[in-house]
Each structure stands twice: as C-alpha cells, then as structure tokens.
C-alpha cells in the first residue's frame, strides 16, 4: 500500500482573478505571497536571477466528488479523443495538483510576481522551483494534434 502524503501550503496566489476559465492565462499577472509564519525573506535569495519558475499548486475549489480516475474527452468536447486523466492537464486530477512554468517578473520580500500562472485568487501554493533548461526536454517534444488545438488560446 502507498502511504498518504501530507502537504502544507507554502503560500497563496494573489491575483484578483476569480473565474476558472480554460483560456486566456498568458497575460495574467499574479503575486505569490509566501507564509511568513514558515519563512523569512532569505528563502527567495537568488531566485531573481532566473527568468522562469515552476509553480506547483492545489486546485482547492475542486469538489472531490468531481475527481476523474478514468478516461474522458478533454473539456468534454466529443471532437477530441477520449483519453485518460494522466494524458491531459485537467484540474479534476486525483490529487488536484497543478503545475505551471511562469515568467518571473520580480521578487520582493516574501512575494514573487509571475506571468501566465493559471491559478485563481487564493490558490494554495505547494512549491516553487526555478526553471532550468537542463530539466526540460532534451529531445524533440511530441504531442497529439488535439492537444495543440485545445491549447491554442490557453496562454493568449
């Protein structure tokens, strides 16, 4: 049996965006405010030297009864093939964890400001990692055409 994991959020999203739409995240600017009861400003020392960060967060408003553990049509559109939840990036994931690679705009005390974070106001942040090219793909990235069609307006 696999052990359960207990995570404590490290901070939260301050963005003003409260609507959960599937598109138009590219110009969104959000601030991540770290929990001052857990951290001092030194936790972010050196982060400003990176252009991008990976943000891991929790889809906290998703009702657990809506979690998907099988296959479905992405965005419930029949024109897309039915694929497993681990073959798409839907929020209805078993552990409700999201990840985004965002442009880092600034670091200020216990706050970082990012662009293109697809998380709404109040979203709990699980982790922040600097994006390093060496952790990105070392081969050509392959993905099905339906996913390209699905994502064409996501980061506009």
Automatic annotation (TrEMBL):
Is this entry keyworded Cytoplasm? no
Q: Which PROSITE patterns match?
A: TSAA_2
Recite the UniProt keywords alphabetically: S-adenosyl-L-methionine
Organism's domain of life? Bacteria
Q: Does the keyword Cell cycle apply?
A: no
- Segments forming domain TsaA-like: 7-140
The record's listing under CDD domains reads: UPF0066 (cd09281)
Per the similarity annotation, which family is this? Answer: Belongs to the tRNA methyltransferase O family.
The protein in question is named TsaA-like domain-containing protein
